[in-house]
């Protein structure tokens, strides 16, 4: 290969490299010289016809070396320029005031349920759970609520099919837990979980939390209404403080007999009457009572031998009382302005 031709090709390479501005142009130049039909590729194919193959090969290597050297040099130059431009455009001005990093915090309902679980575990209870999509049998029939029972109307339910619904109460786990025992044995459990009813106002939500409590033992051990009252008083005083009044009043629930409701004085008006407590001065916190004999019998426990009590506070309302939250809907809106109030809040 003649020296004149070699120098001409090298000069062309240097000239074209000088005019390259971006990576796309650089890659196009590489194709022009080293692609399938590139200049260097064609020169390589000509080595077969060269008279002096050694000299031809040395000349070709000189061209390839020059091209590769200039290519790498230009590529590094372009990449350095791109990096500098990016760093300049994204440069952080350390003289600007910093932005406050928002820290996460536990949801107030999470803090409440954890405290409730700790309390009952310390009293010897087990924490269990069950399905939220429940069958009509376990949600109602096993709890002494047969089909067409009028008490079902009080639990406006979200039915998925004729026999499947979103559970209206965690009491359904009572039946499942008793049934799971091969032989009847003492039970002391709480069942925290989500429940669903068609309610929506300042003190009710379509989805709400409930903690079902169940204690079953042999009648010879004298599990009585006094034990239930004492348990609920410990719970109320621990969770809500000693400055609230507690009221027990008779009520009706198909799965307990006798039954009663437990109210505490409204934290907003302190018993004077307001929109939150519907002008009564009281807010219901518990539904409770002695386990109905039919419930025991239907789930494998002889009511002549076994007895016990059940209770069901809503952790939403407990949270409202504990932290002074006037509207239950605030608990489900995930508004950071509301939630940040509980950051590092003393329990």
Keywords:
7-stranded mixed β-sheet; 10 strands; elongated; 3-stranded antiparallel β-sheet; 347 residues; 2 domains; alpha+beta
Write the layout of secondary structure elements.
Blueprint: H1 3-19, H2 23-34, H3 39-45, H4 53-89, H5 108-122, E1 126-127, E2 133-135, H6 136-139, E3 158-159, E4 164-166, H7 172-179, E5 187-196, E6 207-218, H8 225-240, E7 246-253, E8 256-265, E9 282-291, H9 293-298, E10 306-311, H10 315-323, H11 336-339
Parallel strand pairs: 1-5
Antiparallel strand pairs: 2-4, 3-4, 5-6, 6-10, 7-8, 8-9, 9-10
Helix pairs in contact: 1-4, 2-4, 5-10
Walkthrough of the structure:
The protein is of the alpha+beta class and 347 residues long. The chain folds into two domains: 3-89; 110-342, Bira Bifunctional Protein, Domain 2 (BirA Bifunctional Protein, domain 2, 2-Layer Sandwich). Helix content is 39%, strand content 19%. It contains eleven helices and ten strands. The strands form two sheets. Strands 1-5-6-10-9-8-7 form a seven-stranded mixed beta sheet, sandwiched between helices. It has a three-stranded antiparallel beta sheet with strand order 2-4-3. Strand 3 and strand 4 (164-166) form a beta hairpin. The longest helix is centred in the N-terminal third of the chain and has 37 residues, at 53-89. The model has no long low-confidence stretch (mean pLDDT 85).
Number of domains: 2
By CATH, the architecture of the largest domain is named: 2-Layer Sandwich
Counting DSSP E segments of at least 2 residues, the number of strands comes to: 10
| Main sheet attributes: strand count, strand direction, barrel closure | 7 strands, mixed
Average per-residue pLDDT, rounded, comes to: 85
